[in-house]
Give the backbone structure.
Amino acid sequence: MRPYEIVVIFDVSLEESVIRDFTDRVTEHVRTRGGTPGRVDRWGRRTFAYELKHRTEGYYVFFEVVAEPEVMDEVDRMLSLSDEVLRHRVIRQPEHVAGRRRVAAPPAPEPEAVPAGAAERTE
């Protein structure tokens, strides 16, 4: 089992219920194939930086999934064949990153203290 992230951009002309049904279908597909669907973030309607398939906006949905590569191949195929999806990306995450998303970076190490007379010495 490997960790993955999936980002899907839906057509904004779709109703919210159609997008919700499609995301439920993706998570159920992963679950029935032995994977573990994680967090699903609905980022909502966003404006594109450039036109995509003659559209200027899309509805973004972000998934976190832990599954076998074969299951993700099926999901990738399902997303690419769907008319509702404008674009999608499936990204495999490194094992050490899985489960630690959205965690603040550790603080930078403190610089070593300089002894009191060290800065005044010239050589």
